[in-house]
């Protein structure tokens, strides 16, 4: 999982009575690491599925092809960040099970370094996934308002901001001697431990707030685009809007499902610092071990094209001569998220197409 609590366990433990030692007495590390490995493996598979090259149908409208490519790039970078984050969780858990101590002792420098570096790796890439998720919502808003995307800005935000936040938070926590448990006073906790929690949770919460607002606004733009493009709203257009609204809702639901347990864990830690409900905290750790790496798997479900079969590039080329008729029939006769504004009879209108090619308008 990507949580500042794990990063605190990377500190040296000189005080045998601190809360971390007490919690670890009731914590089954082998089960925890097994859960992390299983969920991260599913996340890796989901991320790989997302980055595999797709083949664009030859019958797709040129505007749909452009916006599909535009959104596809964001989805690929989101999947790449998910892939490296899940891979970090998998490797860390595998090594913890076989070679390293999950909680370093006083003179165990190697375990401290490994724990700190692996935790920084996973936190960095999970933070990047949060920003790419926000960038997708921002680009959707820009696209529906017929404004160009800002890919260079997206990359700067997604790769530089997590680096700054991760470096600042973990530097304050570990420097100079990786001994963040030397005192149990509230002052020490606020000065040394709280900054890392703030660096993590403020960004996480900002995406939780920003994404629904952006998608709500995009839905209104979508309804306006339907009305202006066709000057009418029939059952077909209503179904299209409902489908895309559902997709927006599921994207938000996946993000909340994967990261709300982390926020709850942080709130409990800081509101009940000296009287922690240990069993509740441990239960939340297991939940986070499942939900955090599974973000990539869930993203593979909600970001894919709906109501149309996706064809991978190599497979498509081998089967193209067998399925060309089916492809044409599928693109023009079956109601999908690409219709109705991309049909030939409406080509003189300016279509508004979803940035991942999975919806129109």
Automatic annotation (TrEMBL):
One of its GO terms (molecular function) is L-DOPA receptor activity. The keyword Transmembrane helix applies. InterPro entries: GPR143. Gene3D superfamilies: Rhodopsin 7-helix transmembrane proteins. GO terms for cellular component: plasma membrane. The chain crosses the membrane at residues 31-52, 73-91, 111-132, 153-174, 194-216, 248-274, 280-303. One of its GO terms (biological process) is melanosome organization. Keywords: Membrane, Transmembrane, Transmembrane helix. This is G-protein coupled receptor 143. It comes from Microctonus hyperodae (Parasitoid wasp).
């Amino acid at each position: 999982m990507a949580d500042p609590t794990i990063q605190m366990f990377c500190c040296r433990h000189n005080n045998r009575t601190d809360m971390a030692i007490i919690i670890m007495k009731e914590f089954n590390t082998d089960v925890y690491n097994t859960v992390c490995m299983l969920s991260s493996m599913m996340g890796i598979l989901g991320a790989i599925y997302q980055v595999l090259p797709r083949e664009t149908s030859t019958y797709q409208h040129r505007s749909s092809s452009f916006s599909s490519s535009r959104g596809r790039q964001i989805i690929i970078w989101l999947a790449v960040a998910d892939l490296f984050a899940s891979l970090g969780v998998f490797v860390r858990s595998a090594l913890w099970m076989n070679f390293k101590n999950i909680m370093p002792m006083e003179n165990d420098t190697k375990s401290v370094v490994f724990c700190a570096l692996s935790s920084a790796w996973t936190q960095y890439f999970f933070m990047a996934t949060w920003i790419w998720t926000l960038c997708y919502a921002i680009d959707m808003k820009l696209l529906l308002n017929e404004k160009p995307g800002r890919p260079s800005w997206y990359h700067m935000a997604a790769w530089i901001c997590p680096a700054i936040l991760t470096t600042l938070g973990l530097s304050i926590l570990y420097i100079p001697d990786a001994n963040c448990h030397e005192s149990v006073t509230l002052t020490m906790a606020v000065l040394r431990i709280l900054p890392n929690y703030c660096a993590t949770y403020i960004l996480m919460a900002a995406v939780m707030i920003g994404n629904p607002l952006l998608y709500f606004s995009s839905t209104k733009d979508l309804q306006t685009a339907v009305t202006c493009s066709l000057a009418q709203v029939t059952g077909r257009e209503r179904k299209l809007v409902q489908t895309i609204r559902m997709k927006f809702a599921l994207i938000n639901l996946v993000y909340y499902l994967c990261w709300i347990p982390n926020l709850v864990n942080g709130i409990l830690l800081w509101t009940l610092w000296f009287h922690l409900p240990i069993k509740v905290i441990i239960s939340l750790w297991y939940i986070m071990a499942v939900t955090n790496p599974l973000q990539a798997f869930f993203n593979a479900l909600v970001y894919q094209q709906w109501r149309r079969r996706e064809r991978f590039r190599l497979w498509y080329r081998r089967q193209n001569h067998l399925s060309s008729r089916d492809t044409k029939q599928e693109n023009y006769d079956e109601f999908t998220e690409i219709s109705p504004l991309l049909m030939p009879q409406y080509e003189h209108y300016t279509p508004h197409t979803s940035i991942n090619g999975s919806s129109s308008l």
